[in-house]
From TrEMBL:
Lineage: Eukaryota, Viridiplantae, Streptophyta, Embryophyta, Tracheophyta
Pfam name, any one: EGF_CA
Species of origin: Handroanthus impetiginosus
Superkingdom of origin organism: Eukaryota
Listed PROSITE patterns: ASX_HYDROXYL, EGF_3, EGF_CA, PROTEIN_KINASE_DOM, PROTEIN_KINASE_ST
Membrane-spanning parts: 350-371
Listed name of the protein: Serine/threonine protein kinase
Length: 758
C-alpha cells in the first residue's frame, strides 16, 4: 500500500475515533439516557441516540433505523439495510458516513478496463450537507457529473479536470488542473457519481490510468499530484449528512402535539441551516436528549470545572447558576467579570488617594525632565527624519485611494531590503535604466528577488512609482512580471519583483553571449506569450490597461526562457467605455505609434504597433537603428529597420532581411505568416490594425497550424525570393507622402532615448 493510501486510511480511522468520542462526550452528558429503555444505545464504539435506533420501537421512524453489523470486529453501523456506513451521530443534526468512490480505469491503449458508478440514496428526513461536502473529480481530460434529486426537483452539477503532463498540476489546488471541485444544491437526497472521458486516455496513461469521483467532506481531502496514480485501495471517504424531523416548520409541528418531536419541557425547536424540517435542542443550562419527555436535565455548572467560572463560591440553580462573594467583599464573583473586591475603610481610601497623587506628581516631574534632555537630541534627529517621513506620508496618501492594493503584496522594511541586497552593493546590480537601478537580492526565506531603486526623488518619479504599484496589484498573469511588494519608509521608492534570471529579449536578440540556441520555435513562442499578456491587459483585467512602453528591453526571460512583460511605470488604466488616452507623447522612439506621435492620442492599437516592432526584431535580429553603418548601407539605415522591412515586403524579398539564424530552418510559411501579421500591426492607420487579441489568436494558430499561410490569407501575393532590388521610391509603399515623413522622423531618432515629459 502506498504512502498516500496509508495516510487516507489513517485519517479515516482518526476521524471515526474522534467523532465517536466527541459524540459520546459532548452530544449528551454522562448518566443521561440517550436511547429508549431496553434499547441498545451503542454499536461498537458508536453512540446511537434516539431518534435513531437499531430495532423496531427504538427509533422515531424508519428513516432513523440503524443496522448494527456484528460480523465486524468491532461491530459497524449502517444506514438501514444499505452499504452506507455510519461513523458518527450527533444530536446537533448531523451524522457522518463513509461514501464509495467512483472510478474509471484505462489500459495503455486507451480502452476502459474497469468502471464503478456508486450512487447515494438517503432515507426521508436525511439530506446531503451542501456546505461541508464537495463533489470532487481527480484525473486528466475527464468530466464528472452528479445528477440526483433535491426534495421535489431534479438537479445536475459537475466539473471538468484537464491536464497533459504531471508537471502541470498544482499541489493542494482543485481548480481544474488534474482536480476540480464543485458544490451540490441544498436538500439533496440522492446522487449518482458519473465519469466521462473527454478524449483518448493514451496521452496521459503513463501517470493517470484511472480517474476518480467522490462526494465527500471537503476538509478530509487535500489534492496531491500523487492522487493521479496512487488513490489505490482507498474505497471510501467521509461524507456529512444532515438529519431533521419530518419536513414541517416548528410552528406546523407544534400544531400536532402527538407527533411533535421536542418532547422535553426544557427543550426548544429550531430551523436547520438547510431549511429542511426542524430539530430540537435543550435550553441553556440543560443537557441531554430533547426527544425524550425528561431528556433535558439541569446541569450542575458548579461541579463542572469547564463551566464553573466563579472565583470563590458557586451556587447552582435550576437551569442556571450564580457566583457569590464572601462577607467583606463585593462584585459579581466571576473570573471573566469584576470578581470579588474587598471593601476598604475610609482611611484606606484616603491613603490610596494620596499615594496615587504623589505617584502622578513624580511621573509628571520625570516626564518634564526627560523632555528637556531629549528635546535637543530629537531636534537633530528630526532634521534627518523629516524627508523620509514626508515621502512616506505622500506615498500613503497616494495609496489610500486604493484600499486593496497593499492587501495583494507585502510591505517590506528598508532594513529587510538592505540586508537582502547587501546594502545595495554595486556587485548586486542587475541593470540600469531610465527609471532607476535594479539589484539582485535574497530574502530571509531564501527567495531570490529583484529590487528596483529609483534614481531620484521628485513628484513625477513618485507618480510613476505609485502608478506601477497600482497597475501591477491588479495583474495576475504568468507572462507578466510579478510585483511581490514595496518599501514605503525610505527616501527613494523601492519595488520588489520576482527574480527573472535570463535578462531581456533585447539582449537575447542582439547581444547574446550565452550560446543559447535562439530558434524560430522559441521566437514564435515568446511572441505568442507577450501577445497573450497584452491581450490580458487590454481585455481580461477589471479595468483595461495600456502598457505604453512595449519594447524588447521590457520583455524579461525566466529560467525556461518564458517571456515576462515588465516596466509599467507609464502604463495607464482606462475606463471600459474610453477609446483612447490624450497625453503628451511619452515612450521610446522607434517603438511608439506614429499616429500617437502626431495626435497625442494613445489607443489600444498603439500597443499593437509597438508589438509589431518587436515582431520585426524577432524576424530580422536587427536593431531599430544600427550604430555601425557601411557606406553602401547608409541610405537604407537612415530609413530605419521598420521602413526597410516594409520595403522588402513590398518587393517580395523577405528572405534578404530575415535573421540568418532562422533562415536555415525549413519553416518558410511561418516566416511569411508572421511577417504579414507584423505588417498589419505596423499599419499607419490605427483602425486598420488588428486588435492584440486577434494578434494573439493568429500567433497561436500559426504555431499549431499545418498550413500557416492559411492563417494569414493575404500572403498569396508574397514570395520568398533570395535576391531583389529595394531601391524603390518610398512612395511605392501604401503610405501617403506625409505618413512616410512621419515614419522616417520617428525611426531616425535614437531607439534608446526616452521622452521624460508626460
Amino acid at each position: 500500500m502506498g504512502f498516500l493510501q496509508i495516510q487516507f486510511l489513517n485519517l479515516l480511522e482518526i476521524l471515526v475515533i474522534i467523532a465517536s468520542s466527541q459524540s459520546s462526550l459532548s452530544a449528551t452528558p454522562p448518566n443521561f439516557p440517550i436511547a429508549k429503555p431496553h434499547c441498545t444505545d451503542r454499536c461498537g464504539s458508536l453512540s446511537i441516540p434516539y431518534p435513531f435506533g437499531t430495532a423496531p420501537g427504538c427509533y422515531q421512524s424508519y428513516s432513523f433505523f440503524v443496522t448494527c453489523n456484528d460480523s465486524f470486529n468491532p461491530p459497524r453501523a449502517f444506514m438501514q439495510n444499505s452499504a452506507i456506513e455510519i461513523t458518527d451521530i450527533s444530536l446537533d443534526g448531523q451524522l457522518r458516513t463513509l461514501q464509495f468512490i467512483a472510478r474509471d480505469c484505462y489500459s495503455h491503449n486507451g480502452t476502459k478496463i474497469s468502471s464503478n458508478r456508486p450512487w447515494i440514496s438517503l432515507p426521508r428526513s436525511l439530506t446531503i450537507n451542501y456546505t461541508a461536502n464537495k463533489f470532487t473529480i481527480i484525473g486528466c481530460n475527464i468530466r464528472g457529473f452528479i445528477p440526483g434529486r433535491s426534495l421535489n426537483r431534479n438537479y445536475t452539477t459537475g466539473c471538468v479536470a484537464m491536464c497533459d503532463a504531471k508537471d502541470d498540476l498544482m499541489e493542494g489546488s482543485c481548480t481544474g488542473l488534474g482536480c476540480c471541485q464543485t458544490c451540490i444544491p441544498k436538500q439533496a437526497e440522492t446522487a449518482i457519481l458519473s465519469l466521462l472521458s473527454i478524449k483518448n486516455h493514451t496521452s496521459v496513461w503513463g501517470f493517470n490510468n484511472c480517474s476518480y469521483a467522490f462526494l465527500a467532506e471537503e476538509s478530509a481531502f487535500t489534492f496531491s499530484s500523487e492522487n493521479l496514480t496512487n488513490l489505490g485501495n482507498v474505497k471510501k471517504l467521509p461524507m456529512v449528512v444532515d438529519w431533521a424531523m419530518g419536513n414541517e416548520t416548528c410552528e406546523e409541528a407544534k400544531g400536532d402535539a402527538s407527533s411533535y418531536a421536542c418532547k422535553s419541557d426544557n427543550s426548544k425547536c429550531y430551523k436547520p441551516d438547510n431549511g429542511y424540517g426542524y430539530r430540537c435542542s435543550c435550553l441553556e443550562g440543560y443537557q441531554g436528549n430533547p426527544y425524550f419527555i425528561d431528556g433535558c436535565r439541569d446541569v450542575n455548572e458548579c461541579e463542572d470545572p469547564h463551566l464553573n467560572i466563579c472565583e470563590t463560591r458557586c451556587v447552582n440553580k435550576i437551569g442556571d447558576f450564580h457566583c457569590a462573594c464572601p462577607k467583606g467583599y463585593h462584585g459579581d464573583g466571576r473570573k471573566d467579570g469584576r470578581g470579588c473586591i474587598r471593601e476598604e475603610s475610609r482611611a484606606s481610601k484616603l491613603l490610596a488617594g494620596l499615594l496615587a497623587g504623589l505617584g502622578l506628581f513624580l511621573i509628571m516631574a520625570i516626564s518634564f525632565w526627560s523632555y528637556k534632555i531629549l528635546k535637543k537630541r530629537r531636534s537633530n534627529q528630526l532634521k534627518q527624519a523629516f524627508l523620509k517621513r514626508n515621502v512616506g506620508l505622500l506615498l500613503q496618501q497616494q495609496i489610500s485611494a486604493h484600499d486593496s492594493i497593499l492587501d495583494n503584496m507585502k510591505v517590506f522594511t528598508s532594513r529587510e531590503l538592505e540586508r537582502a541586497t547587501d546594502k545595495f552593493n554595486e556587485s548586486r546590480i542587475l541593470g540600469r535604466g531610465g527609471q532607476g537601478t535594479v539589484y539582485k537580492g535574497m530574502l530571509t526565506d531564501g527567495r531570490i528577488v529583484a529590487v528596483k531603486k529609483s534614481k531620484r526623488v521628485n513628484e513625477a518619479q513618485l507618480v510613476e512609482f505609485i502608478n506601477e504599484v497600482a497597475i501591477l496589484s491588479q495583474i495576475n498573469h504568468r507572462n507578466v512580471v510579478k510585483l511581490l511588494g514595496c518599501c514605503l519608509e525610505t527616501e527613494v521608492p523601492l519595488l520588489v519583483y520576482e527574480f527573472i534570471p535570463n535578462g531581456t529579449l533585447y539582449e537575447l536578440i542582439h547581444d547574446d553571449t550565452t550560446g543559447f540556441l535562439f530558434s524560430w520555435d522559441v521566437r514564435l513562442r515568446i511572441a505568442a506569450e507577450i501577445a497573450n499578456a497584452l491581450a490580458y491587459l487590454h481585455y481580461a483585467t477589471s479595468i483595461p490597461i495600456y502598457h505604453r512602453d512595449m519594447k524588447s528591453n521590457n520583455i524579461l526571460l525566466d529560467e525556461k526562457y518564458r517571456a515576462k512583460l515588465s516596466d509599467f511605470g507609464i502604463s495607464r488604466s482606462v475606463a471600459i467605455d474610453q477609446t483612447h488616452l490624450t497625453t503628451k507623447v511619452k515612450g521610446t522612439f522607434g517603438y511608439f505609434d506614429p499616429e500617437y506621435f502626431q495626435t497625442g492620442k494613445f489607443t489600444e492599437k498603439s500597443d499593437v504597433y509597438s508589438f509589431g516592432v518587436v515582431l520585426v526584431e524577432l524576424l530580422t535580429g536587427e536593431k531599430l537603428i544600427s550604430n555601425s553603418v557601411t557606406e553602401e548601407e547608409e541610405e537604407d539605415e537612415e530609413r530605419g529597420l521598420i521602413m526597410r522591412f516594409l520595403m522588402t515586403m513590398k518587393e517580395n524579398c523577405l528572405k534578404t532581411i530575415l535573421d540568418p539564424r532562422i533562415v536555415e530552418q525549413d519553416v518558410k510559411e511561418e516566416h511569411l505568416a508572421v511577417a504579414n501579421l507584423s505588417k498589419r500591426c505596423l499599419n499607419l492607420n490605427g483602425r486598420k490594425r488588428p486588435t492584440i487579441r486577434e494578434v494573439a489568436m493568429a500567433l497561436e494558430s500559426i504555431r499549431t497550424s499545418d498550413n500557416p499561410l492559411s492563417v494569414e490569407s493575404k500572403m498569396h501575393d508574397l514570395s520568398y525570393s533570395e535576391t531583389c532590388t529595394v531601391e524603390s521610391r518610398m512612395q511605392d509603399l501604401s503610405y501617403s507622402e506625409t505618413d512616410s515623413l512621419v515614419l522616417n522622423r520617428v525611426e531616425t531618432a535614437s531607439s534608446s532615448w526616452t521622452l521624460n515629459n508626460d
